[in-house]
Amino acid sequence: MITTAKRLDTVEEYYFSSKLREVRQLMSEGKSIINMGIGSPDLSPSKAVIEAVAAAIQDENGHGYQSYQGLPEMRQAMADFYRDQFGVEVNPNNEILPLMGSKEGIMHISLAFLNEGDHVLIPNPGYPTYTSVTNLVQAVPVYYDLKEENGWEPDFEALEKLDLSKVKIMWLGYPHMPTGARGSLALFEKLVAFAKKHNILLINDNPYSFVLNDNPMSLLQVEGAKEVALELNSLSKTFNMAGWRVGMVLGNAEIIDAVLKVKSNMDSGMFYGIQKGAIAALKCDKSWFEDQNKIYRRRRELTEKLAEKLNCKVYKEGVGLFVWAKLPEGIESAEKFIDEILYQKHIFITPGTIFGSNGEGYIRFSLCVKEEKVQEAIDRF
């Protein structure tokens, strides 16, 4: 009998992978499920993006292997985007590495910098992949608390009390997933100072900056951040290109080169046509963001009504692609709460517990649901 690697004992199947099977089963039984669980944009990329890809497919030179670092013009478009949107200057030749989605960057960075037994600071609540990848590379997750009473920001006094001697990486993501907390430049300055003090590689996962957020920020805006920090970003949410798998990691040349050593052994370059589409997306003007946010704003207003229908208290300060809400007093299990709604009302909502123990008592709604469907969900109650 062929046995699996021991590292698989440290992880479970991704929650949405297993839960969506359950949802599909209900749908096959004729249940009309409204999926408000997963943040997969249902809107389309811009016309310019589609046209760029269509034209690229006709290019006879566009079907071979591509550079591990992507087209020079795509790296330049990414650098221009960061300059125009964040005021951050990066060298497109060696301070940007395009990725097939920012999620793979989590693995590449971990493989590049973590040895067995190294410690990794992970937000609780936070994106579950930080934990699963840390376990897969046989490093040790060390959770730091984010709590509502602290605005879903780190408690630096508590951080300093941790044993940081083995910590190699610290993950963060603002705007925060799942809560939608915005973060601030003042917070980023504290985090950079903390990382420098303790010789920690700081990584900001930043795919939600432009969704319902009037003040997009980058960790790299902080002076000296490149010395200790990387930033991941993605075209998935900003440009409705989730299935295209286009992301990027930005930072100083030495750190980016280490990530490239891993990546170049993992794939053979991104399809030419997708790169051309990404270039077109990154050149969109501010009207693109305004039009997208008009749609998301209406959806958020309706989703907040749904949450209030469930007697939940919405975190109103949140931005990004989700609505984070606190369950009514007396509800002991977020997972039991959402399962009852799934089976009784046929609406799928994400329990906060999948993001960590501090997510107990909360649920998360995705805004990737058309207005009429959100209204239908409200009407079911």
Can you walk through the features of this model?
The protein starts with 14 loop residues before the first helix and ends with a helix. It has helices spanning 15-28, 47-57, 72-86, 102-113, 128-136, 156-161, 185-198, 253-263, 272-282, 286-309, 334-345, 371-379, and strands at residues 34-35, 96-99, 119-124, 140-145, 167-172, 201-205, 229-234, 247-250, 313-314, 322-326, 347-348, 350-351, 362-366. With 381 residues, it is of the alpha/beta class. It contains 12 helices and 13 strands. The protein has a 7-stranded mixed sheet with strand order 2-8-7-6-5-3-4, sandwiched between helices. It has a 4-stranded antiparallel sheet with strand order 9-10-13-12. Helix 5 links the parallel strand 3 and strand 4 (140-145).
**In percent, how much strand structure appears in the residues?**
5-15%
Largest sheet, in brief, is: 7 strands, mixed
Q: What is the oligomeric state here?
A: single chain
- Please, what is the average pLDDT? 93
Shape: globular
- Termini separation (Å)? 51 Å
- The largest beta-sheet arranges its strands as 2-8-7-6-5-3-4
Number of DSSP E strands: 13
Q: What is the string of SSEs from the N terminus onward?
A: HEHHEHEHEHEHEEEHHHEEHEEEH
Helix-and-strand structural type: alpha/beta
Radius of gyration: 21 Å
The number of helical segments is 12
Indicate the percent of residues in helices.
25-40%
Low-confidence stretches: none
Pfam family, one: Aminotran_1_2
Enzyme class: transferase
Family: Belongs to the class-I pyridoxal-phosphate-dependent aminotransferase family.
Cofactor: pyridoxal 5'-phosphate
